[in-house]
Specification:
binds S-adenosylmethionine, single chain
Amino acid sequence: MASQDSFNQWNFAWEKNNTKWHIQERHPYLEKYTDVLLNGRKEVQIFFPMCGKCVDMKWFYDNGHRVVGVEYVEKGVVEFFQEQGLEYVVEPVEQICGNLYKTADEHLKIFCCDFLKFDKDCAGLMDVVWDRGALVAIEKGDRKKYVKLMLSILAPGYQYLLSTFCYDDWFFSGCPRTVPPALVHILFGNHCNLQHLETRDASERMSERMDIRPVLEDFWLITEKNLK
Ligand SMILES: C[S@@+](CC[C@H](N)C(=O)[O-])C[C@H]1O[C@@H](n2cnc3c(N)ncnc32)[C@H](O)[C@@H]1O
C-alpha cells in the first residue's frame, strides 16, 4: 500500500483542482504511437494505471477497445465520466477495498482504489498499456512492487508505452520523479524487450513546477522478451 502521506497529497491536489498534469486533448505521443501499440488489432484491452481523468481513455472506448483504469481519488474518476458525458454505474469491490465505476456495456472500467491492490483478477490481462504519470508518480520504495504488478497483468504480445522524466533531482524530488534511462533498464530490462523511442526536452513545459534544466522526457516501448 502507498503511504497515507501520499494519499493525502493526491486527495488535496484533486480537492484544490491542482491537476496541472491533466491535458484536455489526446496526448500527442500516445496518438503518435497508437498504431504501433495496436499492432493491427481492432479490439484490445488497454490499461491506464493511475489514470486520473485522462481523455485518451474515451478515445479508445469510442474506437471499440476495452479500457481499464485505476485511480485512487474518487473525484478524478467522477470528473472523468461527467466531463466525457458518459453514464456510469458504481459497485463496491471488496478485494480492492474500493469501488468499480463502469459504463453500462462494461467496456470502460475505472477501479477506484490504491493501485497496489489491483491485480489480474480484477479485469483480466492487458494487451496495451499507457503508463504516463504513473511510474514517475509512485514513491521510490514502491517501484519494484509496481513493476512486478504490471508484469503480472500483461497479456501475451503486449505493447506497453511508457513515459519517464530525467533530471537532476538535487533540488526537486516531487512528482514527476526522475526515472533515468539506466533505472528503466534495471526495472524492466531483465523481463522485457525495451526500445527507447525518443526523448523530448520538457524543460519549458515543466518550468512552472520545477526550476531545473534540462528536464528530459523519454518514451519507451516495452514488449514481450524475444518478440520483435
Ligand atoms: C500525475 S497524475 C497522472 C494522471 C494520468 N495518468 C494522466 O496522464 O493524466 C497521477 C495520478 O495517480 C493517482 N494516484 C496516486 N497514487 C495512486 C495510487 N497509489 N493508486 C492509484 N492512483 C494513484 C493520482 O490521484 C493522480 O490522479
